[in-house]
Design a protein that fits this description.
The complex is a heterodimer of chains A (272) and B (301). With 272 residues, chain A is of the alpha/beta class. Chain A contains eight helices and nine strands. A six-stranded mixed beta sheet of chain A has the order 5-6-7-3-8-9, sandwiched between helices. Chain A has a three-stranded antiparallel beta sheet with strand order 2-1-4. In chain A, strand 8 and strand 9 form a beta hairpin. Helices cover 78% and strands 0% of the residues of chain B. Chains A and B meet through helix 3, helix 4, helix 5 and helix 6 of A and helix 1, helix 2, helix 9 and helix 10 of B.
């Protein structure tokens, strides 16, 4: 009992200054013309409970960076720390396993994390109701709509109870209406996780997108990456009260400013 | 009850966009694909009727050819003559014995091939060196008619059951292993990446992610493996007949040739065909359909 309690306290964000620390990280891949630098000296902290979006045009290496943070790949130089354990990762495609039901997908995540068999079912149902999919437990992946699949994927990611949720353009393939609803949903879950008791615990999000409005709509901080190689080009703190709407005037205003910067970054590539 | 309470607490704790829950419920209802099972009568009309009519047509054409006396009767027996060989065997009580001798050999050989082919396939799929070393040989062996193994098997092992099993293994193991290899190759890398972020690495990754993801290809390999097992066994039984071996369907066919008993030959061919189809229909097709339907991969015709 005492150890369980100690573990629980350890999981709370107060134990660490940051949910992720990316220090002078560079990454190059072997290209046809020798090693090609994709990420150049990236330094970035994600605070506990913080929501950060990484924004950039194609070729800025934002997905590469996310893979590095997720531990799927190793940086060429620099170091990445995620003290809250292995981060959860959500992809653009739902990446749910089609041979399992929605509920069993979540239970697999719980099982791999070592949750006892007797607790898994209840926990999975709980997570499904968190993403408002009560009753989807026995549904096969192909029976769910695109938005529902991403919500199950979100529940599966939350099942890892990691302090850090990495999201790689998770809503890019959805239609605008569904995407809008999922923005609300993600904001709600993230805020709930950081206010008092909840199933998800304390939660930081590092969200990759190329959609400026989406970045502003969701984040507390927007980080703009330049392309080829990716460097931190600019950073904005978003001081707009949540819940926001993507069509809010303040969201639009900041989006215009960020888009200008982004276009400037893109133009530089046409000049040589 | 407890979960309702938690949701209530959550909604009060965080100011929500108005009506988000009901909005989502509406979207879900609009976008959910309804899948349902086909009713029995539709299955009968669409799946059972066509092959049945084909069989009837073949019987009619056959009878017409016999009645028109297109060839000598010892070359083309009447359907009724084949039927009476069947009933003769049934009345003598030998029919089921003969079928069972072959089927039990075939199934046992197939299970052995399964036990050898599966780890072999995993090894070839996952270990680069092994794939480079024996991958091409394995796919090449698939195109080698397994009847070619009968003469060496007879000389190595003699005229006995082990010879039969050796021939079955040489025919079926490459199919099963190759099926697994192509199943593994077709696993979307996304599943493996998703599995790794969930902590499924090494053996756990193979068990929870790789194997289930490769299952459709593996099942296709098993199906082909059974077909190869059955064919190899028939080749072995026809070529290597000996009184010690017991009477199987292959020997039945060979006996028919030796006795110039054309109805017997036809009967043996039909039985071989029926067993092959029946095993496929009773075991492999339902298995494959279940797996594909569960994944939403079964296209309704």
């Amino acid at each position: 009992m005492a150890t369980a309690l100690a573990k629980a306290t350890d999981r709370t964000a107060a134990a660490h200054e940051y949910a992720a620390r990316i220090e002078h990280v560079s990454k190059s891949f072997d290209g046809p013309a020798g090693p090609q630098l994709v990420l150049d000296d990236i330094t970035l902290d994600v605070a506990p409970g913080e929501f950060v979006t990484l924004l950039g045009a194609s070729g800025c290496g934002k997905s590469t960076l996310l893979n590095l943070v997720a531990g799927l790949d190793a940086p060429t130089a620099g170091a990445i720390e995620t003290p809250g354990g292995r981060p959860a990762l959500m992809f653009q495609e739902h990446a749910l396993f089609p041979w399992l039901t929605a509920g069993k997908n979540i239970e697999l995540a719980l099982r791999l994390r070592g949750v006892a068999k007797s607790d898994r079912r209840d926990r999975a149902e709980e997570l499904l109701s968190l993403v408002r999919l009560e009753g989807a437990y026995g549904k096969r992946v192909h029976e769910l709509s695109g938005g529902m699949r991403q919500r199950v994927a979100m529940a599966r990611a939350l099942a890892q109870e990691s302090q850090l949720l990495l999201m790689d353009e998770p809503f890019a393939a959805l239609d605008a209406i569904t995407r809008d609803v999922l923005h609300d949903e993600l904001t709600r879950i993230w805020r709930t996780a950081n206010t008092g008791d909840s199933v998800a615990g304390n939660l930081s999000v590092l969200f990759v997108t190329h959609n400026v409005r989406e970045a502003v709509r969701l984040a507390q901080r927007v980080v703009l990456l330049s392309s080829r190689p990716g460097r931190v080009a600019h950073e904005w703190t978003v001081d707009i009260e949540q819940p926001r709407r993507i069509e809010d005037a303040e969201v639009a205003e900041l989006s215009v400013e960020i888009t200008e910067q982004l276009r400037g970054e893109i133009r530089r590539h046409g000049q040589h | 009850m407890a979960s309702t309470e938690t949701t209530d607490v959550e909604t009060t704790a965080v100011k929500d966009s108005p009506g988000l829950g009901s909005l989502e419920a509406g979207l879900d209802a609009l976008e959910t694909v309804q899948s349902h099972r086909t009713p029995v009568r539709e299955v009968l009309v669409k799946k059972v009727l066509p092959p049945l009519s084909a069989i009837v047509l073949v019987l009619v054409v056959w009878q017409v050819l016999v009645s028109a006396k297109v060839t000598d009767e010892y070359k083309l027996p009447a359907p009724s003559a084949v039927w009476s060989s069947l009933t003769d065997m049934w009345l003598q009580g030998t029919l089921l014995d003969v079928v069972w001798t072959s089927v039990s050999r075939g199934l046992l050989g197939f299970l052995l091939a399964l036990a050898i082919g599966t780890p072999l396939g995993l090894l070839v799929a996952r270990v680069k060196f092994v794939r480079a070393a024996i991958g091409p040989i394995l796919s090449g062996l698939q195109s080698l008619p397994s009847v070619a193994w009968v003469p060496p098997a007879v000389l190595w092992l003699g005229l006995n059951d082990s010879m039969m099993y050796a021939v079955i293994l040489l025919g079926a193991v490459p199919s099963i292993a190759n099926g697994l290899v192509s199943g593994v190759d077709q696993v979307p890398p996304l599943y493996l990446r998703a599995g790794r972020t969930l902590g499924a690495t090494g053996v756990r990754g193979a068990w929870h992610i790789l194997m289930p993801a490769a299952l459709p290809g593996y099942l296709a390999g098993l199906k082909q493996g059974w077909a190869f097992s059955w064919r190899s066994l028939m080749a072995a039984e026809i070529i290597a007949s000996s009184p010690d071996l017991g009477l199987g369907l292959g020997q039945l066919l060979e006996n028919g040739r030796n006795n110039s008993d054309m109805p017997g030959i036809f009967l043996a061919i039909f039985l071989i065909l029926i067993v092959g189809i029946a095993i496929d229909l009773l075991i492999f097709s339902p298995l494959e359909r279940r797996v594909l339907r569960g994944r939403g991969l079964l296209v309704k015709g």
